[in-house]
Amino acid sequence: MLKRYSSHCWHSQEKAAIHGKALECSGVYDPEVDSIPPDAKLALGFFHWSAHHKQTKHETSSYCIAVHILVKAKLIKDARALLEAILTRAATESSSVFSVVETLVSSYEVTESTHFVFDLLVQTCAKLRLIDGVMGVVHYLDERGFKLGVISYNTLIHVVEKSGQPGLVWLVYEHMVENRTYPNEVTVRIMVNALCKEGKLQKFVDIVDRMHGKRCSPWVIVNTYLIFGMVEEGRIEDGLVLLKRVLQKNMIPDTVAYSLVVYARVKLGDVESARKVFDGMLKRGFNANCFLYTLFIGVYCEEGKIEEANVLMLEMENGGLKAYDETFNHLIVGCSKVGRVEESLKFCEKMIDVGLVPSCLAFNELVEGLCENGDVKLADEMLTLLLDKEFVPDETTYCHLISGYGKKGSFEGVMKLYHEMEYKSLSGSYLILHSLIISLCHCGRLEEADRYLRVMKDRSLSPSGSVYKTLIASYFEKGDKTRADQLYSELIGQGLDLSFQRLIKIYSEKEYNPLSPVSLVFTFLRPGFCQSGKLEEAHQYLRIIEPLVSKQWFVTMESLAEKALKAVENGELNIMPERFEKIYNHWLSNIKDWGISRQLWWGHRLPVWYIVGKDCEEDYIVARSTEEALDKARQKYGKNVEIYQDPDIVDTLFSSALWPFSTLGWPDVSTEDFKRFYPTTMLETGYAPTILHSPLSCPVVGV
C-alpha cells in the first residue's frame, strides 16, 4: 500500500481531480486502495511503480495520459521517453503507430494538455525512423486543429531526407508551407541538401538564375523548385495556389513568380493565355528573361512553327539575352523534324561556337535528317567534332550513321562505325544489330549480314520482320532462292508478318522454284486474291493458328472412381457383356483428373463465380446457385461485393451424365418424376464410347 501524500503539493484540487480521474480511467490504480500522486513527477513514479511492483502492463491509453500530464508539467524528457516506449511497442507488435496517435488525440481534452504534445509525437516518430505513413499522421492532426511547429517539420524533413526518399521530403515541405508554418534557415539548409542528394541543385540554380536574371538566395531556389516540381507533376492548380501564398510572404521574387505562372499555362496547353501573362509582365516593367523566351521557342518548335521560333530567337539576341543549351536544342530538333536540316545544322554549329554541346536527342534528330538527305559523311564529321568536346553519343546516333552509310553502299563506313561501337561496348544491342544487318544487305555483303543474324540469335535477340524482308529480297536479287526460302520459313515459324506488297515485289518477273515454300504460298494465292488486289484477304491464309494455353477446371476423380469400382465389385452395377468389366476396371483404376472446361456458348454452366475486381485465379466461389454464391461472397468480401459466373460450360460427357436427373426437375428432388424415375436402372451405350462414357458417367450420377 502506498502512503498518502500531503495535499499541499497539488496546485489545486481541480487539477488533482483531473489527474486522478485520468489515471483511474487508464486503469493504473484503484482509488479505494491507492492514493493520488501529488504532482507530475510523482505521477510518473507511480506509473513506473505500478508496472514494476504490481506487474501492470500499461495499455496505450495509460501511456498517452501520462505523456499529456508530463508535457503539461514541462517534463519533456520524461514524456519523450514514454512516447518512445509506446511507439516502439506499437511498431513491433500487431497494433499500429496510428493507434497511438488516435489515443493521444482522444485523451487530449481529458488531461487539459497542450498542443506541444503532438509536436513531441512527430519529433519522436522521426527520431525512431517511423516515417511510413507519417504524412497520414500529419494530415490527421491538421484535420483536428493541431498545427505543428517549424522545429517538428524540420526534424521530420531531416529524417526523411536522410532515409533517401526525396519525393516525401518535398511533400512534407509542401504541407508545411500550405499550413502557414513558414520555413527558417534550418529548413532551407535541409532542403538544399535534398536537392544536392538528388543531383538537381546546379541545374535548378541555373533555371532560377535565368528566370530572375541574377543569382538568387537558397530560400528562393528551394521555394521555386517546390512550385516548379508541382507543375512538372501535373498538379498545376495546386501549384498556382501555393505560389500565391509564397508570393504574399515574399518568399519568391515577382519575376520568378511571373515565369512560373507562364510555365504553368504552357504546361496546361494554353499558349495564348501564357503569352498574355508574358505580355502583361512586360507592360508592368518587368524584363523578359531567357527562360521564358526558351519556353516559347520550345512550344513553337514542337508545333512546327519555325518562323515564329526564329523571330523569338532574334528578339532574344537583340535584347542582350544569351541563349543556352536548351534554346539551341529546341531549334535543332524543330528544324530537323520539319525537314529544314540546313537550318538545324547552322544552329548546331552556332551552339558549338559559343562553347555549348547539343543534347544527344537533338543531335540524333540532326543526324537522322542529314542521313536521309544523303549527307552521312557530314553527319559523321559533326560527330567527330563533338567527340572532342566530350559529347557522348548513344546507340541511336550510331544506328542513324550506319543506316546512312548502308544506303550509300559504303561497307567500309558501316564497319568502321560498328568497330568504333565495339570499342565503346555499344555493339551488342538489338537496335545496332538490326541496323547493321540491313545496311550490310544494302552493301551487298550477304555473308556478313547472315553472320550477324546468327550473332543476333545467339544473343537471344529475335530478328524483326524488316530484317527478314531485307535478307529475303537481297538473296533473291542475288539468285540464291534456296536461302531466301529458308529465311522465309524462319520468318513464318516465328509468327512474323511479311506484307503481300513486299512479297509481290520480290517475286514479280523473277524465276523461282514452284515447289519452294514461298513459291507455293504465292502461287496458291496469286490467281485469286492477289491478282484481284484483295491483299488483306489473302494475308489471312499466311497466319499461323496456334493453340492458346489457358487454365481449365478439373474434377478430382480418385474418390469418385473408387465408388464406381466398388459398385461393380459388390454387384450393385452389372456390365453386359461381362468382358467389358475388365476395360471398366482398368480405366477407373488408372483414371486421371477430368478436364471439364469447354469454351462454348451452350451447355451446363460451371458452378463457379468470380469477384469483380479480384484475381480470378485466387478469388473464386463454388456454389449451387447465384444466390448461394452471393451470400458466400458477402460473408468474405462485404455486402457491396459484385460477382459474375464463369462463362465456361462442362464438357459433353459430363453434361450427358447430368441428363438422367437434370431432365426430372433437378435440383428440386421433391418432384414426382424425380422420385419415380431416379435413380435409373439401365444405361445403354454404343460400342465406341463404352470405354470412356460409361465409367465417367457412373461416378457423376452417383452409382
UniProtKB/TrEMBL annotation:
Listed transmembrane segments: none
One Pfam family hit: tRNA-synt_1
EC number of this enzyme: 6.1.1.9
Domain Aminoacyl-tRNA synthetase class Ia: 422-687
Top-level taxon in the UniProt lineage: Eukaryota
Similarity annotation: Belongs to the PPR family. P subfamily.
Protein's recorded name: valine--tRNA ligase
Organism: Escallonia herrerae
Lineage: Eukaryota, Viridiplantae, Streptophyta, Embryophyta, Tracheophyta
